[in-house]
Amino acid sequence: MATLSDNKSKLSQVQALVDILKVDFRVHDLPPEKRVAALEELKVFGRDANQSDPIFTREGIEMLCKHAFEGTDNKSALEAMRCLANALLIAPETRHIFVELGYAEKAVNRYQRYRQNDSSHEEFLAGRILFLVTYATADLLKWLEEYKLAKYLNDAIMRHGKIYSKVNSNEQPSAMQDMAFTETTKLLFNITHFAPEKVDLFSRSIPSLFKILCRRTLPSLPLQSSIAHLVNALLNLDLSSQPGCVFPSFDPTCNVARLIRVLDLSVGSPNDNHDDQRNRLFDEAGVPLITLLRKVFEISSGQAKECVRKRLLPSDEQRKDPLGKGGSLASRLLQLSTSAVALNTRQHLASLLFEVSNSNPEEFVRNVGYGYASGLLLSAGVQLPQSALEDLSTSSDTFGRSFNPVTGQALDREPELKDPLSEMSEEEKEREAERLFVLFERIKRTGVVDIQNPVEKALHEGRFEELD
């Protein structure tokens, strides 16, 4: 058997392995353990596309498909699926070859076989292969109905949900179960994205997805885990078809509160260097989470809406300082909505806060201050009438305190502005006046600005007083 340490070139070794495995499928002359070893070696070579061309040809892909979906040895089949998944990932053109060879239905059948074998490895590998091939096929409708992929996906998600079914159980999935779930949710997202007219086929998965979201232990960076793919999977589904599951009667706020908890863990302060990684990750992966929250808020009512407003909008207590200055979730969201470190998400965050304010410009300004609201209103082409700003300047919070409409801070908490001249002696005032007189004269002589020295103007207007 050829190895990486042999003197032969990598290309010749890869070609030799492909030839051996092609012949083996026809005549079955390799013992199962040697077949697995050959496929394992081919898998190692195939991790790098350089000099691995024989794997990515039509003949190479067909050979891997035969071993993966038509062989009788399960270990060899799993190893061939690993090789195939790598090839489909590294060389996107092989996805079209896979479809043209007609192996989609066999891959779907392999995906549902994991239930018989209770094998997360099979779900993971078949799910990944199908996920990658969704980018190269127009036959998704046939997959969903004729090949029954919609049924198999729903069954898989319900099976993952059962892990969390025990009340007060701390049971969590194994690493392999989690990886399999990730591939299943990625496949669900792609299918609902490319075939939006069939999202109703997956409505029965909504309860299990929310169950997993609520009972799954959240890592410190949720958007680096399978939680991110779960959010994506929910994104395209018709949540209004299952209102009783999105807002269960025993606690209508549990699901929306969990989404806000994920948001809370994902958002850091732009002013804290320790939160740089958190905010970079959020800016890369946070848009689906914000969008899902907006969708849930849109169909929610009563308690759920109030829960969102209470967590995402500044409280009256926070008006002791200018809004956006503290470390609460509401403050961090305001900071990010205008931050240069959140170029992808800041517009979405501002839109979320606007919608939570009932999409009412005056209420939006009242909630977050005109300083934060002006950017979104300007980009949306919404002008706030001067009369509205005047009304806001006299409005008050639930404690009856008036607040600054620009900063959102309660007026009775704003620092008193001191007269800068109050602590200056007469001599200091005279020196300052002389300095300003000279400065204005210099500016006037440049000719750049047509300006009149205010001292000269006061003299002409007779506003000077002779002193003893």
Automatic annotation (TrEMBL):
<dbReference type="GO" id="GO:0005085">
    <property type="term" value="F:guanyl-nucleotide exchange factor activity"/>
</dbReference>
<dbReference type="InterPro" id="IPR019318">
    <property type="entry name" value="Gua_nucleotide_exch_fac_Ric8"/>
</dbReference>
<feature type="compositionally biased region" description="Basic and acidic residues">
    <location>
        <begin position="411"/>
        <end position="421"/>
    </location>
</feature>
<dbReference type="GO" id="GO:0005938">
    <property type="term" value="C:cell cortex"/>
</dbReference>
<dbReference type="Pfam" id="PF10165">
    <property type="entry name" value="Ric8"/>
</dbReference>
<protein>
    <submittedName>
        <fullName>Uncharacterized protein</fullName>
    </submittedName>
</protein>
<keyword id="KW-0344">Guanine-nucleotide releasing factor</keyword>
<dbReference type="InterPro" id="IPR008376">
    <property type="entry name" value="Chaperone_Ric-8_A/B"/>
</dbReference>
<comment type="similarity">
    <text>Belongs to the synembryn family.</text>
</comment>
<dbReference type="GO" id="GO:0001965">
    <property type="term" value="F:G-protein alpha-subunit binding"/>
</dbReference>
<keyword id="KW-0963">Cytoplasm</keyword>
<dbReference type="GO" id="GO:0007186">
    <property type="term" value="P:G protein-coupled receptor signaling pathway"/>
</dbReference>
<dbReference type="InterPro" id="IPR016024">
    <property type="entry name" value="ARM-type_fold"/>
</dbReference>
<keyword id="KW-0143">Chaperone</keyword>
<feature type="region of interest" description="Disordered">
    <location>
        <begin position="403"/>
        <end position="429"/>
    </location>
</feature>
